[in-house]
Structures are given as structure tokens and as C-alpha cells.
Amino acid sequence: MTHPTLDQLCVNTIRTLAIDGVQKANSGHPGMPLGMADVAYTLWNKFLHHHPRNPDWPNRDRFILSAGHGSMLLYSLLHLTGYDLPLEELRQFRQWDSLTPGHPEYGVTPGVEATTGPLGQGFANGVGMAIAEAFLAATFNRPGYDIINHYVYAIVSDGELMEGITHEAASLAGHLKLGKLIYLYDDNHITIDGSTDLAFTEDCMKRFEAYHWHTQEVDGHDREAIEAAIKAAQAVVDKPSIIACRTTIGYGSPNKAGTSHVHGSPLGIAELRLTKQALGFDPDKEFYVPAEALTEFRQAVPQGEKLEKDWKELLEAYTKVYPQEAAQLRQFISGELPAEWEKALPVFPTDPKGMASRVAFGKTLNVLAPVLPNLIGGSADLAPSNNTYLDGYPAFAYGSFAGRNFHFGVREHGMAAILNGMALHGGVIPYGATFLTFADYNRPSIRLAALSHIPSIFVFTHDSIGLGEDGPTHQPVEHLATLRSIPGLTVIRPADANETAQAWKIALEMRDGPVVLILSRQNLPTYDRTKMGSAADVAKGAYILLDTAKVYPDVILMATGSEVQLAVEAHAKLAEQGISARVVSMPSWELFKAQSDTYQDSVLPPSVTARVAIEAAVAMGWGQWLGAYGSFIGLDRFGASAPYQVIYEHFGFTVENVVLRALSVIDTSKKR
Predict the structure, then answer these.
(1) Pair 13, 293: CB distance under 8 Å
(2) What CATH number is given to the structural domain containing 517?
(3) Residue 611 confidence (pLDDT) above 50
(4) What is the pLDDT of residue 451?
(5) Annotated catalytic residue within 412, 499, 590, 615
(6) Contact call for residues 546 and 557 (beta carbons, < 8 A)
(7) Residue 563: which domain range?
């Protein structure tokens, strides 16, 4: 146990590094690091199991700075405890190409477990991490061999407890009784506007009690009380825990402590000097780390080495007794898929009636489940509609943490961020589903998955006006365009059952970013692949489904998903008039853009300017494929409530209209 004076020196070293970083950048949030330094030091110095020289050690505790605006707190801790984050990087806080961006970013800074800043995302990510830990522990642990056994900690803020996403995530975490989840709440009563009394007056601890969490309240500057509270939280195995740490924002600042002025702005040189003096530091020294403090912090390196060494020895002993389980665990952790897993992908027979792509998705999912035992997920209370249920497998629940079916409840926003946390933890392949119109509720988490290159799989069914009678509130029209606008996100809208199976293959093999699968409610014909392009070409994003004997067709008909069948039928009608058409199935713009120019030109020859695109959605983005003379059959309004066949006819999604548009663009192309 360290001496209280040394502990105080260490805590104040965190504080001064943080405020120096913010001041040098002339941008940032110094108040939270000043206020939460006692809490963070106690957690990192006395509880956190981690190995700074191997940030990816699988059985480490996860720490999330969900209150990501206080990023200098985390950067200071990472540097001090020996992560590959030199002091110079703290000097470059918020600067171009530094390892210390304004808010923590996963994949940029060693030791950062999640991209945080949008309040509540890290909170929900932590729930996902605790779920992944519980699943792996229940799947692999054996008596005497707790191979997976770690905690998920986070620092959360007043603002996050206001955000709706944390209500969703906290509710599910309490229901699941995730006992390895411990959150430290920076209860400082200050937001940017001023006192939280302006807008936030409920009793948060009673709320969390209602969520079935274990709650405690402590003085956030009393390290002994903090330590006791964390120990008490660890002792509760059937509830997640939240510890309200009553702190003073900007602690140590003589003139700004306890005010909103210290929340989101540098202290200023004069106040910075006064604060350093109040903390016992020389105001003339910048980024100063006392030698004795650094020695204490760096004990994390040998301690981490021992923790990992002990774990490896346990894993080695486990391997001798449970060789098959050990091999599977290593495969799960590596993220590699089993050899020849893709042979399990179904090939659906030709069928003019076919099936909805949501049904094909569910059939493919259930064929893959036995060969991919870490494929886990579910739906936001729509499993029968989304076809996400894994037949023959139990639900994930307390006492059944090896279950693979998840009931996320009507919590779309929370579900998406929880999926990201599961994927960030590693060892599992998570998927989650809802209707496409609710992608708006998922969007912040999808965006962060793309930003962070997280391989989450988001599934959206009921993808268009083809939903029918539920009407415009449930008929997505702008959602494809908004999802396609997210950099790094792969959107796939398959045209039939076999394209759907191949879309699954792409999603499972994608390791550097999220994939969105867009699926229909209504039946789609299953095409005869002996006479058409291979469904495997979905991997290329767009491909020639039907062609003509001519080197260059008279017109190109492009479509995605359920509208491909209109292009296929129009192809035959045009042929009857002596018009040669090429049908291009275009399930993924992103994958198509990733192909070579040569391939893109082979599918869409620049010389063929007569083009028609068909998609039951808004036109945004289609211009890049249509060119100056193309025509789009789509929507410029919301849908309507009626049987889908009636809606399609009224909005011009008919074979006759496709033929007329094709003839029109051919005529326009000839006249130019």
C-alpha cells in the first residue's frame, strides 16, 4: 500500500498533466480530469487489471472513459502507467495526426477501448463488453479454470445519465444482472449551461435501483471511501453497479472550481498557475512528472506482466485438460472464421415465387449457427419479423449466459451501441436487427462503428414501401441514402435469396468496419443462376445479372433489392421490341466503388449513356451512376398506407413504366 502523501502526489500529477494539455491546445475540458482524478487513480492503481505493454491482452479489465470530453484524464493515465503514449503526445493534445485527439478514439491511441464523446455511447458499449465477457466465460470456463474473468469499468457523467441511450442500456444491463459491470459516476452537478438543477433533478440512484442496479454514493475525493465502494461493487455478482462519486468539477482551481466555466474551456494561464500552486506543483513547470510519482505509476507494467503470465499459465493448463475448448477460444479471440465455414452457405433453388430476403436471411443464419458458434445476436423485440432467432439455442439470460439469442427489447438506440461494445470486446460476432425505418434510432451508433472500424452487423428488414399497410411512418424512403452517406459503412440490399446468402458471407468476412443488410418484407423471386450472373458477384457490389448478345446494350437497367425483378421483367419486354438491355444488380455501392475502374467500366460502359435506375427510395446519390442522360424511378415523397402492390403501381414501380423510361432515355441518348 502506498503512502497517502505519495498517493496525493500521483493524483495531482494526473491533474496537472491534464490541465497543461488542455491549456497548450487552448481547447478542451479541464474540469472533469481535475474533479475525477482521485476516483480514476484509485481504480487504476488498486483495481484495474491491465498490461500496458500488451493493451490487447484478452483477459484484461476494460476501462471506458464514457465521459470522453475529459480525454486528458485518460491520456495522462495511459502515459503514466506505461502505455506507448510518450509525453510528447500529451503536448500535442488535439493537434493534427497526434495520438491524443479531442475525444478518445479506438484504434488511434493504445489503451483506448472505445471511441467516446457522444454522451452515452461508451456507457452502452460497456454493457456490450460485459455481455461478451459473460458469454465467453459461460462458454469456456470450467471448475478451477476461470479463463475469462474480468470487469468492465467506466467513468460516466451527469450528461450521460440524461441521454436516452443510457436509460435503454442500463435497463437491459439490470435485467440481465451483469455483475461484472461497474460504473463510476462523476456526480459534479455541472453541465455546460450551469448547474444540473436547471434541467436534471431526479434521484439518479433511485432510478438505477429501479433498473436493478447496485448503487452507492461516496465522496469522490475520499480515496478510502472510493476503494471501499469498488470492493463492495465487486462483491455483488448479480447486479451491475454504479457508484455516485460526489466531486467538485475543476477541483483545485481557486476561482473556477465548482462552476461551468471550467467544464469546456482552458483555465487560462493565470488560473493554471494558481491551480498548480494550490496542488503543490511549481507553476513554471509544464507537463511535469515527479520521479517518485512515475515510479509508482509504472508499477502497472510489472504487475501487468505478472497478470498476463499467470493467465497464460492457466490457459496452458486448461489446454491440456480441455484441448478442443482451448482451440476454439483461441479462434474466437483471434477473430478468424473456421476453415471452410463458407461451405455451409445455402444455395437456394430457382423459384419464381421465391421468398422475402428477410426469410432468406433467417434461413442462412440458422444454417451458419452450428458452424459459427460465436455468432450471437437478436432483435429489438421483432425477432419473428426480422427472422433473427437461432433455432434450438437458448436465450442469453442470467443463469444462461452461454445463450445465443438476445432479446434486446424495444431499445433500438441502446441495442446498436451494445452491439459495438460486444464487437469491441472481441471473441464474438454480434448482429442486431430492427425495421429499416428505425435505423434513425441506430444511426449514432452505426456512425461510431464506421468511425471506429468496428465489424458490427446491423440488420434492417421491412426495407421500403413494400411494407404496405403500416403506412408512411414505417415505410423508409430516405434511409438508404442516409446510410450510404456514412463513410466506412458497407450497405448491402440483396435482390434474392442467393444474394442474401452472399451478403451474409461479406458481412462475416468484413473485419475493418460495419455492414448493414437491407432486407425485404415481401417475397422476391429466386433467380436461375444458370442463366444469369453469379450471386457470388455481390462481393463486387454490382454485376451483370442479365445481358444481351450485343457488345454494348441499348440501355442499362440498374436496380437494388426488390426492384431488380422489375428490371428483369422489363428486359424481356424490351427484347420483344428489339431493344437490347443489360440488367445490373447493384446491391452495394460501397463494394462497387472499391472495384477497379476497369471492372466498373465493364459493368457500366461509359459509352452507354442510356441508363435507368430503379429503387423504392429517394434519388439522392444515384446521379453518379446515371450520368447526365439517365432516369431514376424512385420516390420524392413519403409512402402511403395500402397493400404494397397498390402502392407500387401508384408510384410507378411497374414493368410498363420501366419500359417507357428505357425507351425515353434511349431516345434522349440518340439525340444528344
Answers:
(1) yes
(2) 3.40.50.970
(3) yes
(4) 98
(5) 412
(6) no
(7) 535-671
642 DSSP 8-state letter: S
Name, in order, each residue with C-beta under 8 angstroms of 175's C-beta and a sequence gap of 6 or more. 212, 409
Query: Locate cell 461497474: which residue?
Result: 182
pLDDT of residue 1 exceeding 60: no
Measured between alpha carbons, how far is 28 from 20 in angstroms, rounded to an integer?
11
Whether 379 maps to a domain, the answer reads: yes
Check if 412 is active-site. Answer: yes
CA separation for the pair 25, 53 (Å, rounded)? 28
Three-class SS of residue 397?
Answer: strand
Same domain, 220 and 79: yes
Q: Residues 298, 60, 331, 442: is their CA dihedral positive or negative?
A: negative
pTM above the 0.85 mark? yes
pLDDT of residue 668: 84
In sequence order, the 6+-apart residues with CB closer than 8 A to the CB of 542 are 558, 584, 585, 586, 587, 588, 589, 591, 592, 600, 603, 604
Considering only CA atoms, which of 45, 606, 508, 605 is closest in space to residue 295? Answer: 45
Radius of gyration, alpha carbons of the chain: 28
Pairwise CA distance, residues 245 & 259, whole Å: 17
What amino acid occupies position 457? I
| 261 and 402 inside one domain | no
Does some domain include residue 383? yes
Q: Over the stretch 146-202, which tens digit does the pLDDT of each residue have?
A: 999 999 999 999 999 999 999 999 999 999 999 999 999 999 998 889 999 999 999
Q: Cα(126)–Cα(532) distance, rounded to whole angstroms? A: 46
Residue 331: CB atoms within 10 Å: 16
Q: Strand, coil or helix: what is 210? A: helix
- Tally of CB atoms within 10 A around 198: 10
Question: Positive or negative CA dihedral for 39, 45, 46, 47?
Answer: positive
Domain boundary among the residues 304, 325, 360 is at 304
The structural domain count of the chain equals 3
Helix, strand, coil percentages for the chain (3-state, nearest 5): 45, 15, 40
**Which amino acid belongs to residue 230?**
I
